[in-house]
Amino acid sequence: MPMNDLDLLRPTLAFATVVETGSFRAGADRLALSPPYVSQMVSDLEARLGRQLLYRSTRRIALTAEGEAFLPHARALAEAFAEGLETVRDAKRRLTGRLRISAPTVLASPAFARVVRTFAADHPGIALEIDMDDRVDDPVAAQVDLALRIGDPGKDPRLARKLFTTRGVVCCAPELAGKLIEPQDLAELTWLRSPATPTRLILRGPDGRDHAAEPGRQMVINNAALIRTLLQDGGSFALLPEFTVREALKTARLGIACAAWSIPEVGVHALYTERRTALTNARAFVDCLQGVLASRRT
C-alpha cells in the first residue's frame, strides 16, 4: 500500500460502518464519534477517490454504483482489522509456558507481591518460577528468562531495558527517625545490607556535598523480609529502594533516617534472554510490573 493512502484507512472503516448501520448518526454512535465528523470523513474519502459513494438525503443514505463496488472491499478491511485486534487480544489472554525470573532479594516486598499476584491472575497459563537472589549472573548462563536488576544492568545493552528510576532511603525503627539527623548519627548502629548493596554509603547533604556514613558494623543479609524485621527492633539501619518500603513508611512500621540527606537515584532494569519462545512472556511480566508500580508511584 502506498504511504499516501494510509490515511484512507480510517475513513474507509467509517464508510463501512455507516452503510452497515444505515445512517451517519448510527454509524457515529458505534464509532463513538460525532455525526459531523463521520460525515466529513466519508466526504474526504469520496474527494480522495474522485467518486461519490453515497447518495444523501435528510432521512436516508443510499449507495451509488461506485459505492456498491467499493463496499465489499471496505467491509473486508473492517472485518480483517477487527479480527486482527481480537487475535492479538486473545493471544495476550492465552499466554502459556514457563517464565523463570531472577530478582534481587531487596525486591521481596509488598509492592513486588502485588505485581506477581496481578500477573498470575491475568495469565493463568504461565507457570512462574521466581528466584530471589543477589548473585549477578548472566541471564543466559543462569537459564532464566528475565532478570531484574537495580543499578548497573551489566555489559550487554542489547538485553537491557530500563524500567524506571528509584531513590534509596535510609530506613530505621520509627522511634529512631527523629534522632538520626546527620550521617555521623549512624556511627553507633549496625548497617543491614544485602550482598548487592554497595559497601560504602554516600549521602548528599542539603548543601550538595557528599558525605560517607561510617556505621559501627555491617551485617550482610540476603533476605529483605529479615532486614525489615530487624530494623523494627532498633539499633540498625538499611538502605532500601523507596518503592519497596513505601507502605511500611506510611504505616510507621519503619522510619527514615537522615531525611534531609539524599541518595542518588538508580535505575531498575529488565534483562531479557534472546530466546524467542520466552520473550513474549517476559515482556508481558515487565508490562505488568510497570503498570502496577506506576499506579502506586503517584
UniProtKB/TrEMBL annotation:
Signal peptide: none
Domain HTH lysR-type: 1-64
Keywords: DNA-binding, Transcription, Transcription regulation
Molecular-function GO terms, alphabetical: DNA-binding transcription factor activity; sequence-specific DNA binding
UniProt cross-references to Pfam families, sorted A to Z: HTH_1, LysR_substrate
A single BP term in Gene Ontology: DNA-templated transcription
Family membership noted in the UniProt record: Belongs to the LysR transcriptional regulatory family.
Protein name according to UniProt: HTH lysR-type domain-containing protein
Species of origin: Pararhodobacter marinus
